[in-house]
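User: Study the chain.
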Amino acid sequence: MRILICEDSVLLREGLVRLLEDSGHEVVAALPDIEGLTDAVRTTDPELCILDVRLPPTFTDEGIRAALGLRKTHPSLPLLVLSQYVEERYASDLIAAQGGPLGYLLKDRVADVAEFVASVERIAEGASVLDPEVVAQLLTRRNRDDRMLQLTERERTVLSLIAEGKSNQTIAGLLFLSEGSVEKYITSIFQKLGLEPEAGNRRVLAALAHIENTGSGTGPLTNPPLGNHPQTGAAR
């Protein structure tokens, strides 16, 4: 896979290059800031772009704005955004943007090389992978959408795991349920959110609907660790 990296930290940038190349991928460019990013994407034609949220010169939102820009110019390009902390506003903006596969992970996840590389590969293959900490802080906040108030506590838990990219089989194992029971919960979630079969990938739409309507918070849930399983199951 051809990968472009935009990360200001020399140590992390070089570390990413090394671990990705050791995993058999090609790093076509490794940039310290967003200057030249658009040209680099055009000339190197990456299959995935990894960006830090905070980049020079102000170290505020350059990376996320660059990611949103790529969503407009290269809408199908898979993106993986890395952040030191959960940046809720930035996460919501990017998750709500229309486009290709998306990953939003905390930088701590890079320490588990096998898990991180698996997440990178899943994103490139079309999955959306959200860090459990991001999901916890976004999905457990008091919701302003009346549709969300219809969800039971168990349905909210299932929806949280869907947002993390968990498969039906994995959700069943984590919650000690049968896959049939998980499919029934998911079907109920789709119905309560008004997502018809023709809506496309309803798993992603359900998670986005929940995230896009969050308000002031009540604190994070304790979520299982990030999974490495593709989305499967009859309910889509």
Summary: Confidence is low (pLDDT under 50) at residues 214-236. The chain is about 45% helix and 10% strand.
